[in-house]
Amino acid sequence: MTPVEPTTLHEGGTLIIFAKDQPEYLPLPASVDANGLVMTEWEPTAVELESLLTGGRVRIWLYTFNHPLQPIRVEVAPPECGMRES
Predict the structure, then answer these.
(1) DSSP-assigned beta bridge partners for residue 17
(2) Predicted TM-score (pTM) of this structure
(3) In the chain, N or C terminus with fewer CB closer than 10 Å?
(4) Which residues lie across from 32 on neighbouring strands?
(5) DSSP string, 57-84
């Protein structure tokens, strides 16, 4: 999956890019608010989408670096968000 700029910013959110100047990581566009709520959007490749449509699963890897796990939520954005052109 590819991180993409959010199609919308959540209420009170501003667009920032994590790891913008860290070549060992993918830049991660995100909507972030003053309370620390971070929302990102990811777009599946055609191969990943086909896998999902035929019963594949989404895996989420969390790098906690042995710190407590933070609460997360996974959802599917509505089709109005649209797939971006490659």
Answers:
(1) 29
(2) 0.78
(3) C
(4) 14, 38
(5) --------TTSPPPP-------GGG-PP
**Tokens 């086909």, residue located:** 50
Tokens of 28: 């991660």
DSSP state of 42: E
E strand or H helix that includes residue 53: helix 46-53
CA gap 7, 69 in Å, rounded: 27
Q: What percentage of the chain reaches a pLDDT higher than 90?
A: 66
pLDDT in tens, 52-80: 999 999 999 988 899 999 899 998 887 76
Tell me how far CA of residue 50 lies from CA of 8, 20, 55, 61, in angstroms: 26, 30, 9, 21
Instruction: Report d(CA 8, CA 41) in Å as an integer.
Output: 10
Q: Alpha-carbon distance 83 to 63, whole Å?
A: 27
Q: How far apart are CA 29 and CA 39, in angstroms?
A: 9
